[in-house]
């Protein structure tokens, strides 16, 4: 019986290997006291990098802006490097009011390290008015989203 339990445990651990997509759909993250929200859609470990997908929405009177340079990532105590921002063109991720914006990042990391994955948004901006797509003022700083491993 113990041998069967051990075999089942090994099979379970093998099935959860690093290339398996981990669902994190129930996780969400408030931006600047409910001026917006990020919803995690997937987290996929790919060895020396991980993909993280999210959907964002703005409940502010204007759009929210995230500068791509303000996104950092990593695992545990080690910083990673964002190497791709999905299909987003230009330097900014624009999150219009009352619309959902989907994007993903690819973060390069050292997989030998233990710890939870994280994505850090150094600054999040609002826009000057409803038609603008340029950053106006900082509404949130150092927003760290820890994604349980």
Fold and architecture overview:
- The chain is mainly β and 149 residues long.
- The protein has a single domain, classed as Immunoglobulin-like (Sandwich), CATH 2.60.40.
- Helices cover 9% and strands 50% of the residues.
- It contains 1 helix and 12 strands.
- It has one helix at residues 2-15; strands at 21-22, 28-31, 36-45, 49-58, 64-67, 71-75, 78-79, 81-84, 92-95, 100-108, 117-126, 137-147.
- Strands 1, 2, 3, 4, 8 and 10 form a 6-stranded antiparallel sheet that branches. Strands 5, 6, 7, 9, 11 and 12 form a 6-stranded antiparallel sheet that branches.
- The radius of gyration is 18 Å and the shape is elongated.
Largest sheet: 6 strands, antiparallel
Whole-angstrom Rg: 18 Å
Count every helix, treating DSSP H or I runs of 4 or more residues as helices. Answer: 1
CATH fold naming: Immunoglobulin-like
Q: Could you say which overall geometry the principal axes of the C-alpha atoms support?
A: elongated
What proportion of the residues is helical, as a percent range?
Answer: under 10%
């Amino acid at each position: 019986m113990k041998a069967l339990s051990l075999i089942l445990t090994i099979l379970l651990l093998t099935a959860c290997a690093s290339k398996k997509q981990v669902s994190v759909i129930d996780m969400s993250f408030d931006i600047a006291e409910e001026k917006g929200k990020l919803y995690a859609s997937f987290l996929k470990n790919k060895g020396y990098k991980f993909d993280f997908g999210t959907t964002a929405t703005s409940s502010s009177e204007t759009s929210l802006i995230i500068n791509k340079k303000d996104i950092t990532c990593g695992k545990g105590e080690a910083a990673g490097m964002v190497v791709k921002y999905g299909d987003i063109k230009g330097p900014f991720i624009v999150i219009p009011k009352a619309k959902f914006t989907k994007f993903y990042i690819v973060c390069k990391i050292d997989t030998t390290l233990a710890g939870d994955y994280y994505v850090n948004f150094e600054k999040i901006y609002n826009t000057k008015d409803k038609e603008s797509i340029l950053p106006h003022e900082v509404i949130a700083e150092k927003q760290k989203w820890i994604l349980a491993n």
